[in-house]
Design brief:
Helix 7 runs parallel beside helix 16 (555-582). 40% of the residues are buried. The protein contains 19 helices and 14 strands. It is of the alpha+beta class.
């Protein structure tokens, strides 16, 4: 099984960037290529903002929003049109866009304007050309130019010397294209890079623009104003693109993020015959080698070592001891001494009449296990379909939509598991159990979502989901998820109860005092640390993709780590269940649930450590981060708790079914 998974993983890595369902768009020379703007993001705020929340240049007739799906709204994406005009294979030099007033100057004791606030919180622009996100090129004197393929490009910077905020009011838009094979005058965009600059354009609004300066060519934009101190690329008739040396020449200064500012841009087209359209996302998804694949392989190796160690412990302790115990329990007593030993039973056989006694609060355990099974199936299906390429970053919002759909559809699994367990526990309130499964965890999730939505709305963030999309979520909940739960519960109650190999006595056995190492705090601490150790490396990259806008597309690795996590939780739960039964403690139902679910506690503690990397300081960021992380960890606790209960139940049925009970 493991070798098959590894071979499949190798195949997925080799084909990881095939994006099914994404159709290429070709452009003829001179045709317009649209540049769109998306939300502005920051790791210091965690509250994405609409691009036009700041006084940037707007299209002539106002920005138009793309038709976005539910997943894009939930992710905070707001893709809109922009005033930037691009034509295929037509270079443009220092085109003037508009003049906008950014607000008051920075002064001590005076509230800064919105642009300065956004710059100090390190907000980044996220632009899109032909569905490709903008890469960010950084150029300075001390090192070679570098390009970063994630997290967009900054809207400005804060000077190290004076501490003032400066706006990046000029951008070089470098776009690579690839000629379409077997077609003439047909090209496709394969890369989009933005190089931002801060240029102090001095101009006089009262000085008219001469006729010669209005247009640089027939295809260029009208000039807005005459520049008094143009850099070389902004001179009339210039055919040179803006460069770092031009901006940093003697006598040149960056543009303060205040007052009237002129926005300009260059467009640079470059042919790249070696980069086909099908491979244009590769460098984005592997982030230009920023995260080598060997790190993920080391993570897999680390996880496999933990699994092998646990498997060795189970083989050495459980199998050896169980074989000895079963042989002793099943042997035929001949001598009086052996008969006396049989009367003085000890070990896990002593609790055979109580081991399958229904737990306390059976309804809640049944609902928790049903919800855990539903979440586990959702995660498994999402990872598998993502590894097959159906939820690529090129299809924005599809990953979230898939998670919602799979959770709603897998309600039948949750209802079935709840009904089957509750019937086994001889519960009578089956309607209540079904309703709790359909409404319990989704209600908590929806309540947290509404609170987070109110917080996002108060911060003018794009994370605030419109009312119409909330109505769609409610329809998805009550139109698909709830009926699916009731359907699964119907079939679950029609099934026979789970059969146990031994009978349960009418009088519960008294549980002796337990040693300290079998207490709940110790088992929770040990039971969670080993499964967490098998997945914490991938956990870092998943958190980075959620909170730092990194691309995460190694779902083949994630599939293996997910399987290893489930196996590790199952093995550690079996180990603790055996020790617990040997101590004559038969209250294993809730203990197995909590021992396996305790991994989520370590994940939450790790999220606290990770939060320090984000440098977020606002109260809204704290609420947003820990609200969603707490909800995610609760779902993880419930899912792994179901794994613990199901594996412990199977283990107990096997060992107690292998002995003779008088």
């Amino acid at each position: 099984m493991l070798w098959i998974a590894l071979l499949w993983l190798h195949y997925e890595v080799a084909n990881a960037y095939y994006l099914p369902g994404v159709n290429p768009q070709s452009f003829a020379e001179g045709t317009q290529v649209k540049l769109k703007v998306n939300k502005m993001t920051s790791t210091k705020s965690l509250m994405p903002l609409d691009y036009y929340h700041l006084p940037f240049c707007r299209p002539l007739n106002g920005p138009e929003q793309d038709n976005e799906n539910l997943g894009e709204f939930l992710a905070g994406d707001r893709i809109e049109s922009s005033p930037y005009v691009l034509y295929m294979k037509r270079d443009m030099f220092c085109e003037q866009l508009c003049i906008n007033n950014l607000g008051r100057d920075e002064q001590r004791g005076v509230q800064p304007n919105k642009v300065v606030k956004a710059i100090r919180r390190e907000y980044h622009n996220n632009w899109i050309v032909d569905n490709l996100p903008s890469a960010h090129r950084v150029d300075d004197k001390e090192s070679e130019p570098t390009t970063r393929y994630w997290h967009g490009f900054p809207i400005g910077f804060v000077s190290d010397s004076g501490g003032k905020a400066y706006i990046n009011n000029h951008v070089n838009l470098e776009i690579m294209y690839h000629p379409v094979e077997h077609e003439t005058n047909s090209y496709r965009v394969v890369r989009f890079t933005v190089e931002p600059f801060s240029v102090q354009h001095e101009f006089d609004l009262e000085t008219p623009v001469t006729e010669d300066e209005k247009l640089k060519s027939d295809s260029m934009l009208d000039k807005v104003v005459g520049i008094k101190n143009p850099i070389k690329s902004c001179e009339s008739g210039s055919q040179e693109h803006t460069s770092y040396d031009m901006v940093m020449a003697d006598g040149r200064f960056p543009q303060l993020a205040s007052g009237r500012v002129l926005f300009t841009y260059d467009v640079i087209w470059k042919e790249n015959p070696d980069l086909p359209w099908a491979s244009r996302w590769d460098i984005y998804l592997n982030m230009d080698g920023a995260i080598p694949a060997r790190i993920h392989w080391l993570s897999i190796g680390n996880s496999l070592i933990i699994v092998l160690v646990l498997s060795g412990m189970i083989a050495a302790i459980l199998v050896r001891n169980l074989r000895r115990d079963i042989n002793r329990y099943n042997r035929l007593a001949i001598s009086d001494e052996e008969k006396q030993e049989d009367l003085e039973e000890y070990g896990w056989k002593l609790v055979h009449a109580d081991v399958f006694r229904p737990p306390s609060h059976p309804l809640f355990l049944s609902v928790a296990c049903g919800t855990g099974a539903q979440i586990m199936c959702m995660c498994l299906l999402t990872i598998v379909f993502s590894a097959m390429g159906f939820m690529s970053p090129a299809r924005r919002g599809h990953l979230l939509m898939a998670e919602l759909f799979f959770f709603a559809a897998m309600g039948c699994v949750g209802g079935y598991v709840t009904a089957r367990l509750y019937k086994t526990f001889k519960g009578k309130s089956w309607q209540k159990a079904t309703v709790f499964t359909a409404l319990g965890f989704p209600s908590l999730t929806f309540a947290v979502f509404i609170i987070m939505n109110i917080v996002a709305f108060s911060q003018h963030s794009t994370d605030a989901v419109p009312v119409l999309m909330i109505v769609v979520l409610i329809l998805l909940w009550f139109g698909i998820s709830t009926p699916s739960v009731f359907l699964g519960a119907y079939f679950g109650y029609r099934e026979e109860s789970i059969e146990f190999p031994v009978n349960t006595s009418s009088i519960p056995r008294q549980v002796p005092d337990q040693p300290w190492f079998m207490g709940i705090p110790f088992t929770l601490a040990i039971g969670g640390i080993l499964p967490f150790g098998s997945c914490f490396v991938e956990m870092y990259y998943m958190l980075a993709s959620v909170w730092m806008d990194y691309y995460y597309y190694v779902f083949g690795f994630l599939f293996l780590v997910f399987l290893i996590l489930l196996i590790t939780c199952a093995e550690i739960t079996i180990l603790f269940t055996y020790f617990q039964l040997c101590s004559e403690d038969y209250h294993w139902w809730w203990r197995s649930f909590s021992n396996a679910g305790s991994t989520a506690i370590y994940v939450f503690l790790y999220s606290i450590v990770y939060f320090r990397q984000l440098e977020a300081s606002t109260l809204a960021s704290y609420v947003m981060y820990f609200g969603y992380m707490g909800l995610a960890c609760l779902g993880l606790f419930i899912m792994l708790g179901f794994v613990g209960v199901s594996t412990s139940l199977y283990f107990n049925k096997v060992i107690f079914g292998s002995i003779k009970i008088d």
